[in-house]
Structures are given as C-alpha cells and as structure tokens.
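Render this sequence as a predicted structure.
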Amino acid sequence: MESGGSTWARGAPGSRDRGGLFTQPDPAPFPRHRILIVDDQIDVAHTEALLLSQLGQTVQCAYDGSSALAIAADFRPDIVLLDLDMPGMDGFETARQLRRVAAMRGARVIAHTGFARPEYRTATDAAGFDGFFVKPLRLADVIKVLKEAPPAMGEPGAAAP
C-alpha cells in the first residue's frame, strides 16, 4: 500500500559526502529522532528532510493530512513538523487527529508555516501545538528541538517501554 510519503535516512554521523562539502557532526550532539514532515509543498518537505537526515535523524514526509495519519501509525514519529495551510485537511485538523493516534503519545507536534503573524502563533498555542516555526526552517530552531526532545525509543538514553 502506497502511503504518499518519502523516507529519508542516512548513515552514521561523522561521514562526509563524496565532494567533501558537508561534514556531519561526530558524534551527534543530540539524540536521534523519528521525524515526520507534513507539507503539501513537496520541494519544501524534501529539502527539510535532507537537512534533518544530514543531522542523523530518520525522516519521513507526507504531503497531506490523510497521508500523515497513515504514516504516523506505523512510523511512530517523535517529532512532527506540520504545515498549517494545506488543501483538504489543514494543519489544525491534522494535529487534532494525530493526537488521537496511540502511536503519537508523547510526540511533539510543531506548527511549521509561512504565516508569521502573531494570531497564528496564538491559534497554534490554543490548539495544543508544542512549538511554532516560521518557514524557512532555521537550523538553530531545529537543533533546539532535537536537543530538547527525548530520544527515539531504541536509541541510547531512551526510556524503556
């Protein structure tokens, strides 16, 4: 069954790409996570997935709310970067439904939007989002979330189930 998303993963931190242009942190300065990026702009989702995978994270992408729900149940993300303005099911409704998925218990759901106006931040706070990022994604914001979020289950330092 096709889930409508992409999976991104990379090898051990500390590797270097073949051109020698990018050096990965060695060892990773923060825990590894499973991250679900939900954005109807495929190029944005893929760019962010590439960045996060280069930081040692395991990433899947979904391009609409329905696909996010299908992927979340199996992937069990620790962090969800969720676009607010998507056709069909918007980010607010997607977040409400993700919170009902048993596999999402404890996951951080972060609003990820091009709308920087204060009323959007207020609305996401009221809707129970765990954070608010304005596009384009800032590396400092990502690193802060990676350091603060508990490690993925099965990773060193993760709590036992």
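Summary. The chain is about 30% helix and 20% strand. The first strand starts at residue 5 and ends at 8.
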